[in-house]
Amino acid sequence: MQGTVTAVSSNGEYSFTKPNRDSINLLAGLGVEGDVHAGVTVKHRSRVAQDPTQPNLRQVHLIHEELFEEVGTTGFRVAAGELGENITTRGIDLLGLPVGTLLRIGDEAVVEVTGLRNPCVQIDNFQGGLLKQVVGRDEDGNLVRKAGIMSVVKAGGVVRPGDIVKAELPDGPHRALDRV
């Protein structure tokens, strides 16, 4: 299973959106160099308030570009980096990957998938009503989160648009993604 990086984004300041870059540098055990969410322990404000010693399972946020097209059919316009992701992909089913999947990105970088992004009200602050488009229910009434996946950096390296993303599934049995 593989796809392509279509955009990379980072921001050194707390902001919902992240500007696109020519490249980002992933640092093993930390995240995106210079990004406000990089670090060994949690950086998201709500999680820091709960327990600042928690491990940072959200070092790198990946989102599938196909989501932008999906929400576009309901009138929303979203571009790479605008939902706060670091890596935007195309052609790989990020949401269908199990916990522990290794994503080999470009020549060197490797991230391990930890779980789903848990979208919050900031998405509605960005565009009113968008939260309902990225969080819904399936036919059985189960909550479905579509705003990307979170990961930790296992091997550092530079990531650029155009890089190939290859998924390496963990040994089974596989554990479905849940929010982190």
From TrEMBL:
<dbReference type="GO" id="GO:0030170">
    <property type="term" value="F:pyridoxal phosphate binding"/>
</dbReference>
<dbReference type="InterPro" id="IPR005302">
    <property type="entry name" value="MoCF_Sase_C"/>
</dbReference>
<dbReference type="InterPro" id="IPR011037">
    <property type="entry name" value="Pyrv_Knase-like_insert_dom_sf"/>
</dbReference>
<dbReference type="GO" id="GO:0030151">
    <property type="term" value="F:molybdenum ion binding"/>
</dbReference>
<dbReference type="Pfam" id="PF03473">
    <property type="entry name" value="MOSC"/>
</dbReference>
<feature type="domain" description="MOSC">
    <location>
        <begin position="19"/>
        <end position="168"/>
    </location>
</feature>
<protein>
    <submittedName>
        <fullName>MOSC domain-containing protein</fullName>
    </submittedName>
</protein>
<dbReference type="GO" id="GO:0003824">
    <property type="term" value="F:catalytic activity"/>
</dbReference>
<dbReference type="InterPro" id="IPR052716">
    <property type="entry name" value="MOSC_domain"/>
</dbReference>
